[in-house]
Amino acid sequence: MTQDGTAPSGLLEKIFKLSAKHTSVRTEIIAGLTTFVAMAYILFVNPSILSNAGIPREAAVAATIWSAALCTLAMGLFANFPVAMAPGMGLNAFFAFYVCGTLGLPWQTALGAVFISGIVFFLLTVTKLRQLIIDSVPMSLKAAVVVGIGMFIAFVGLQSSGIIVANDATKVTLGHFTDPKVALSCLGIIVIAILLTLRVKAAMLAGILVTGIIGMIIGAAPAPQGISDIVSLDLPHMSETFLQLDIPAAVHYGLISIIFTFTVVELFDNIGTLIGVTKAAGLMDKDGRIENIDRALMTDSVGTMVSAVMGTCTVTSYVESTAGVNAGGKTGLTAVTVGICFLLAFLFAPLFGLIPAFATAPALIIVGAMMMKNITGVNFKDYTDSIPAFLTIIMMPMSYSIANGFGFGFASYCLLKIFSGRIKEISPVMWVVTIIFLISFAMH
User: Fold this and answer.
1) pLDDT attached to residue 19
2) For 9, 120, 123, 429, which has the most beta carbons within 10 A of its beta carbon?
3) How far, in Å, CA of 24 to CA of 7, rounded?
4) 377 and 141 Cβ atoms separated by less than 8 Å
5) What is the pLDDT of residue 253?
6) Looking at residue 390, what is its pLDDT?
7) In this structure, what are the phi and psi dihedrals at residue 230, rounded to the nearest 5 degrees?
8) Would you say the C-alpha torsion 204, 201, 329, 395 has a positive or negative sign?
9) According to the model, what pLDDT value does residue 400 have?
10) Domain residues of the chain, as ranges?
């Protein structure tokens, strides 16, 4: 029996082991919808960023949808993880504005570099090195990664809602509450918080929809004016980007630093996300080991190569998956639901475009609050654990990078253990990873 007292259907039970995870089909679908709504912005943000690299916008839309849908479905069916995948934020900016912008390289060459980084991921996966890296992370740092991702998610939500805005003097400051969008975001936070208090399963999704609909009613967001604003039969295609990657050119340019950056950022962004999401979903045991992590890492590495073939930047696991996990998602059925939603986005792309950022921001902020509970996993009695944990947490939102937080945590952990005479507590993998991060910081 599942957590709502009903028996799951035979096929879904066989594929996703719903009873063993104490979940239900209904809960998993709601979780998948919640995750999708929280990350639907990527359908519009990624093509916009990639267009700056010269990639045709329509092809970028199609490549984004196909890569996100196929990789997320694979994550659900092969790894049975409630984790959604899509082209990575930050990675797309590096791709478009630095590799293609500052360096002036063709986007086809940049895609070649992405594909090569995917091969590196694959080799690290089949040799079990990626899993060794995850297993080598101390429990305090694993807990800190979860909290740091929560802070990162909340910070993204606060920015997209307008509650926190840029300031020349202090970098960030409080937004203007006279702005209807800011006020609606605050309302969304309250609505979701109340529904969670009342133990409403679809609290996140309901809060997003309520906030979005009210925004449309008062004119803060565009409302659909006709059927063409909801459904479109003129589907985007990716013929201009499919198989256009130029691997020989990437090798010819000797893009070691670029490939290294793609590899390091994606590697540790993905590891950090998987640790955070799986721990929140109860897929991590008391020793910190993650069930089916080898399959998840294999899916991710193949997904990177697939994304390059289709014509978009590196596909990675999405931190917004925590929104679905906190809505009850525990199995791959959550990811499959997200994957199906991405496929449906071909038809309903105009409708998804109407969901404003201020409506999804409250869910991200609440998820960040939920993930704070993992702070109890940090050993505050030992400074060699607590200080690296703090640096991991604070550097994720402050540097706007999960990988940077990971790097500061690893490096400080090793240094403190060395100078406290406890060098034996540092595993060989921790040494290697720390050196890689130090090289990455130096190159950055």
Assistant:
1) 75
2) 120
3) 8
4) no
5) 67
6) 94
7) -115, -45
8) positive
9) 78
10) 10-143+165-377
Q: What is the pLDDT of residue 191?
A: 92
pLDDT at 69: 92
Nearest-Å Rg of the Cα atoms of the chain is 21
Cα angle value 151/393/168 (rounded, 5°): 65
| DSSP H stretches of helix in 168-292 | 180-197, 203-217, 247-253, 256-280
Tokens of 98: 């630095």
Query: By C-alpha distance, which of 242, 245, 241 is closest to 109?
Result: 245
| CA gap 33, 56 in Å, rounded | 29
- Distance of alpha carbon 371 from alpha carbon 326, whole angstroms: 9
List, for the chain, all residue ranges whose pLDDT scores fall below the cut of 50: 1, 5
Instruction: Classify the C-alpha dihedral 430-432-436-438 as positive or negative.
Output: positive
CA distance 87 to 63: 9
Residue with tokens 């979860």: 146
Strand, coil or helix: what is 331?
Answer: coil
Q: Which of 38, 83, 118, 122 is nearest to 329 (CA)?
A: 83
Residue recorded with tokens 């990664």: 145
Q: Is-contact 118 300, C-beta < 8 A?
A: no
How far CA 153 is from CA of 158, 235, 368, 372, in Å, comes to 9, 32, 6, 11
Contact (Cβ atoms closer than 8 angstroms) between residue 342 and residue 124: no
Q: In 10 A of CB 151, how many CB atoms?
A: 22
Mean model confidence pLDDT for the chain? 80
The whole-number pLDDT of residue 201 equals 61
First to last CA, the chain: 52
Query: Tokens 């201009």 correspond to what residue?
Result: 240
Is-contact 67 303, C-beta < 8 A?
yes
Whose tokens are 């505050």? That residue is 380
At 399, list the tokens.
């540097």
Dihedral sign for Cα 288, 133, 128, 431, please: negative
Beta-bridge partners for 171: 167
Taking alpha carbons only, the member of 6, 10, 45, 34 closest to residue 22 is 6
Please say whether the beta carbons of 207 and 161 come within 8 A.
Answer: no
The predicted pLDDT at position 132 comes to 72
Burial of 397 (0-12, 13-18, 19+ CB in 10 A): buried
Residue 194: the pLDDT is 93
- Across 20-155, the runs of DSSP E, i.e. the strands, are 85-87
